[in-house]
């Protein structure tokens, strides 16, 4: 049995792409091989962006709770007061401590004042 050389086993013309194939498939690989010009965001940048979004969302929640709690002093004190207190607690837990505490305080005072003062008013009159 004679050993055949690799070139005898495979015809190079079959495996090599023709000029026609090269013209048909003009793909560019530079983007995969090139080093990026700008460094990719590190984990700290991504974490800082996420923290910024959470802080922004907690501020928005805190302001919404404060507006609802202030509205509870004029319209539907029990419903809006308790709602403002609950949303204020959510804002407090998310990190907007000051707005959360103010919302909880104003909302619960409005609800408690209505539940205490209205029965007293009707008891006196």
From TrEMBL:
<keyword id="KW-0472">Membrane</keyword>
<feature type="transmembrane region" description="Helical">
    <location>
        <begin position="63"/>
        <end position="92"/>
    </location>
</feature>
<protein>
    <submittedName>
        <fullName>DUF4190 domain-containing protein</fullName>
    </submittedName>
</protein>
<feature type="region of interest" description="Disordered">
    <location>
        <begin position="1"/>
        <end position="23"/>
    </location>
</feature>
<dbReference type="InterPro" id="IPR055338">
    <property type="entry name" value="YqfX-like"/>
</dbReference>
<keyword id="KW-1133">Transmembrane helix</keyword>
<feature type="transmembrane region" description="Helical">
    <location>
        <begin position="99"/>
        <end position="122"/>
    </location>
</feature>
<keyword id="KW-0812">Transmembrane</keyword>
């Amino acid at each position: 049995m004679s050993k055949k050389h690799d070139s005898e086993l495979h015809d190079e013309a079959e495996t090599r792409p023709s000029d026609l194939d090269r013209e048909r498939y003009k793909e560019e690989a530079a983007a995969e091989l090139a080093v990026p010009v700008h460094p990719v965001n590190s984990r700290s940048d991504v974490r800082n962006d996420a923290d910024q979004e959470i802080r922004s969302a907690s501020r928005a929640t805190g302001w919404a709770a404060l507006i609802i709690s202030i509205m509870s002093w004029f319209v539907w004190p029990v419903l809006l007061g308790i709602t403002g207190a609950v949303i204020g607690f959510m804002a407090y837990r998310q990190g907007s401590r000051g707005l959360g505490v103010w919302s909880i305080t104003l909302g619960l005072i409005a609800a408690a004042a209505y539940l205490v003062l209205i029965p007293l008013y009707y008891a006196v009159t």
